[in-house]
Specification:
Distance between the termini: 20 Å
Largest sheet: 5 strands, antiparallel
Strand order of the largest sheet: 6-5-4-3-7
CATH class of the largest domain: Mainly Alpha
Number of strands: 7
Shape: globular
Helix content: 40-55%
Bound molecules: fe (ii) ion
Radius of gyration: 21 Å
Order of helices and strands: EEHHHHHHHHHHHHHEEEEE
Number of domains: 3
Amino acid sequence: MAKNIYDNRNTFLLKKGAVLNNHLIKKLTVNGIYYVYIEDEFSDNELKDVISPEIRKKAVDSIKETFTYFNQFNEYKENCQYSMNERSFIKKRNEHLENLTEISKELINDISKKENLVISLVDIKNYDDYTYQHCINVAVLSMVAGIELNLSNKDLKNLSLGAMLHDIGKTFIPKEILNKDGKLSDEEFDIMRKHSLLGYKYLKDCSWLSSAVKIIALQHHEKVNGSGYPKGLKGKDIYKLAKIVSVADVYDALTSNRPYRKPIAPNEALEYLYANGGEHFDYDIVKTFSKKIIPYPVGSLVTLSNGETAVVKKVTKEFSLRPIITILSKSKKRTVNLIKEKNLVITGLSHNL
Ligand SMILES: [Fe+2]
């Protein structure tokens, strides 16, 4: 193991330096750990955590509390039909949002301290509990892109909190639709699409909350060609921070394991973003975003266009799809720099040797 491993309650699971065996792999997967960093003859990089496990846990707990509180209040309102407790609700709601604001500052501090940060699936995909982890992942991915885009500190603060709260409107969507195992019907999808407007409406009267945060919740499903919702805004009319969250949101959703769909590999998710760059997503944001994502981290096993299998040895930031690899051919191992070897491309992650 190249790093200590903790579960999503921050309980220590496995020490750096431990040697993996079947028993330990089983223990990790039971605890929702599907990706780990390992140390072997190919690894010579120092590995940095994108955010510390402690801050991730704090952020997840706070988002969970905020979402649960919104949910409970909605149910209460539906059943009682009057708003006797509205004042105490608002007070409590503000406490939750203030707490989340503090945590979003910690997230920025933690992330911006690290130079040359890149993200691989190991950093964001090790946790179950999709709803809340998704909010943190979108915040982390958005901020890494935002730092690369040289956003001001104020923008980064708004981006961080806006990304964490972007789906708060989902607390207003019936659970049967939200947790449905299969594809949504047109009617259900129409209801689902209301979440961005509902989230915005709810945050709107929270006067101390920056309008940037509210607009992120409102516009994160708008598409630059005007085919998004709720308003069908185009290009420049969509707020820049909402465009960043939109890219991060889709990347994290595509690479996540969902009950109704298997996750797609990071390289395919990046290709999807590129294919829709200029249509759904802002092309420059996709380009910046993809620089910060490592689809094939050092040590991953990949399949090549000539059918051979290779191990990734070194990744450069600018050409993360064309790393230096060692081809594991039957006759002789050889190391190839894919930037120079133009005829050879990686076709995907390999799962067998
Ligand atoms: Fe959403």
